[in-house]
Amino acid sequence: xxxxxxxxxxxxxxxxxxxxxxxxxxxxxxxxxxxxxxxxxxxxxxxxxxxxxxxxxxxxxxxxxxxxxxxxxxxxxxxxxxxxxxxxxxxxxxxxxxxxxxxxxxxxxxxxxxx
Length: 115
What we know:
alpha+beta, three-stranded antiparallel beta sheet, two-stranded antiparallel sheet
């Protein structure tokens, strides 16, 4: 058998780069790595990305600078949790081919459809 004959077809083969897709979490993962992968994918949603940029801008404006040993030091505020991995959560994003390995690692937890 050839390599092409043994290769499974995946739902990502029909997606084109630049296409808008809708992703929905079908089952919440328990592993920390899979949760962080899903969070990273969810942050690519334009609404979530805008909220993260706005939060970063506000944290930079309100940066606490103090003097320690005659040098300026800063204490940074932690980033807000914008995304939450739970069953039924959905987001839209632009598909790029470099995301296929991430989607394959969590494909048991996410359904991907063209928007």
